[in-house]
Amino acid sequence: MNQTERDDLPTFRRDVRRFIGENLPEDIRCTVRENRLVSHEEVVRWQKILHKQGWVAPNWPVEWGGVDWNPMQRAVFDEECALGGCPPINPMGLSMLGPLLIAHGSEEQKARYLPNILSSDETWCQGYSEPGSGSDLASLQTRAVRDGDEYVVNGSKIWTSGAQSADNIFCLVRTDVEVKQQLGISLLLIDMKSPGITIRPIIGLNEMHFFNQVFFDDVRVPVENLVGKENAGWTLAKAILGSERLHLSRTGENRALLDDLVAIARQEESDGRKLIDEDWFKRKIGRAEVRLKALDYTKQRFLQMAAAGQTVGPEVSMLKLQGSELIQCFDELLLEAVGHYGLPYDAAWMLGSRAEEPIGAAYAGTISANRFRHKGYTIAGGSSEVQHGIIAKNVLGL
Ligand SMILES: Cc1cc2nc3c(=O)[nH]c(=O)nc-3n(C[C@H](O)[C@H](O)[C@H](O)COP(=O)(O)OP(=O)(O)OC[C@H]3O[C@@H](n4cnc5c(N)ncnc54)[C@H](O)[C@@H]3O)c2cc1C
User: Fold this and answer.
1) What pLDDT was estimated at residue 300?
2) pTM, whole model, 2 decimals?
């Protein structure tokens, strides 16, 4: 970044902050600030507002509707969004599929799908995991057999987040059973309204509906919905996983949790003293903040590499690993700060339909629910154990 760009950052920050202040709907800000679950409708509403401003896809090239920001501006934007109470964007279309289509999609696919991803008129879900194929994704069995100008798809996907509200699914399918597993996989774009698709909701122990199992029974998909070449889907799948892991560093969410923690520590007391004045607790906050800073700088390094056209390789696993584990660290500190008031599990408050006041401070009411929800973060997008394996083998060469 040159000196002029550095000098312009405070102005840029002021503009972003003003925009968020004037345009983020109050009800959405309130949901986010109270750490309740942001609905699909709220996310889409906010994405449409960002789209109108031209800011919804900072990671896309300008000619496809992205923004001409340098990595520092993107970092400032993320930070201001977190501080301003903006909901996280839905990464499926904007962070994962969109950039992949720009790089590898046909001209027809770009024209058909990219504008609707930008405008959030169509949303996407990810069809990778299957019963029996999670970490060992290359063993997936959902079969696509060519029949004239169509593929006929049979099988099922599981843990498909948001399938109940998505218009389309990007789906890994097996197109060759004779070759090494990785060499027989293709990536298909499938309309969720296609005849033969059934969605079975999976309601979590936390009473929430994120997951689904999606069944494909003789689903006919036009050949033009194949991304890249047939049987070359594994490389594309890994590219999407790379983008997902960059996104899953969750620096914005971590930053918001740090702010919550500091605010709560200013109110809660231990032996008559505010927690924020206790050295033992300040040290814990400090340690977590240092981890967050390191994560932020590492993410910026990767963004700068990507902006300079360099390939970001398996080392992106570090971000996913650290980001998801740091959130769980903040959850534990939040629980420690509010003590037993943080223990009740209140799904109704998370979903915004609560009739009664929480027994403690309002901020304690969602701590347990989020703590359990965030347990999934060290599994989604590849478990921590798998990330350790990737770093050991592919980054450190052990
Ligand atoms: C919140 C959430 C959202 C998700 N959303 C989606 C989605 O939208 N679309 C989608 O396709 N999938 C989604 N998933 C599924 C997710 O990708 C898988 O759960 C994940 O890849 C792990 O696979 P698995 O559940 O089959 O566990 P398994 O692979 O069976 O793993 C079980 C255990 O064994 C360990 N293990 C497995 N292999 C190794 C290894 N090589 N070395 C060391 N330990 C290992 C794992 O760490 C884990 O502890 C989501 C999951 C979660 C939690």
Assistant:
1) 85
2) 0.93
Residue 383 CB less than 6 A away from ligand 1: yes
Is there an atom of ligand 1 within 6 Å of 391 CB? no
Residues recognised as catalytic: 244
Q: Say yes or no: CB of residue 225 within 6 Å of ligand 1.
A: no
Ligand 1 centre to CA of 132 (Å) is: 10
Q: How many domains does the chain have?
A: 3
Contacts of 244 (CB under 8 A, 6+ apart): 91, 95, 96, 320, 381
CB-based burial, 139-152: b 16+ in 10 Å, e otherwise: ebebebeeeeebbb
Q: How far does residue 369's CA lie from ligand 1's centre (Å)?
A: 21
Helix 317-338 vs helix 279-307: crossing angle, to nearest 10: 160
Q: Please, are residues 257 and 216 in contact by the beta-carbon 8 Å criterion?
A: no
Residue located nearest, by CA, to atom 32 of ligand 1: 135
Does residue 367 sit in the same domain as residue 303? yes
Which of 89, 112, 140 terminates a domain? The answer is 89
Residue 22's domain comprises 3-89
Assess contact for 350 and 369: CB atoms under 8 A: yes
- pLDDT of 222 higher than 80: yes
**Separation of alpha carbons 211 and 203, rounded Å:** 7
| 133: three-class secondary structure by DSSP | strand
pLDDT tens per residue across span 287-345: 999 999 999 999 888 888 877 777 778 899 999 999 999 999 999 999 999 999 998 88
Quote the ligand 1 centre to 334 CA distance (angstroms). 26
